[in-house]
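Posting for a labmate who doesn't have an account.
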Amino acid sequence: MTSKLEERKKRRIRSVTNYRDCIFPSDDDDLLGFPTLQPASPRDWQGLKLVDYGARVRYYDKSVCHFFVNDARFEGLINAPAKSLSHVLRYAAVLTPDYSIFADYPLSLQISQHYKSRWLGAYWQSQGVNVVPTLAWGGADSLSFAFSGLPKGAVLAVAAPSQRAAPAQLKRYLVGFAHALDVLRPRVLLVSGLWLPDYAIRQLNTIDCEVFINPTPIDKRNIERHALKRACEAV
């Protein structure tokens, strides 16, 4: 009987047309109502590769879908969540969408971006997708809610900062990164990008966290470019 009720609930949630049609449970203490996400299912994260949403994938069972791409590529997911379901179910795991959150955004917009990301994560989890929450934050005023609804001691994901980040941007990144580690103390951290500042690495060394670094396509092109340059200089 319980399984039939659960399947009926699953079908009902699957049929929603946009995020306004379904309110997921929240244990949010600040009353913003961010959906609470459950920890991702255990995996051997070492053998998995982060791939862009929409990229060609050869082995879905060895890939983790991420959304560290332009918002335009996934903006429509929130208003037609069922359309993405068959696709995201193919991956070993899926990160919650990384909706852009900038420090100069109005606080109301930052909250809205967070809510959409949490909502899609909760929707996918309700349909059996293995979801890894993505860390994201804006300015200092966003830190009071940026990590609400995320599981503690679990698997989380984050994008590394750009090596070209302005000093103020890098400072905001490091402050938010340290706050996330202090509040959530992840067991595993999936990082998109090769460059983690020394301060961030020192912060990770203070907790028992396994880190997996995944180079981005830009990182790979830079590595190839530098390797070619060294080869030419050696001739």
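Reply:
Got it, the structure tokens are right above this. The beta strands are 49-52, 63-66, 93-95, 131-132, 155-159, 188-192, 210-214.
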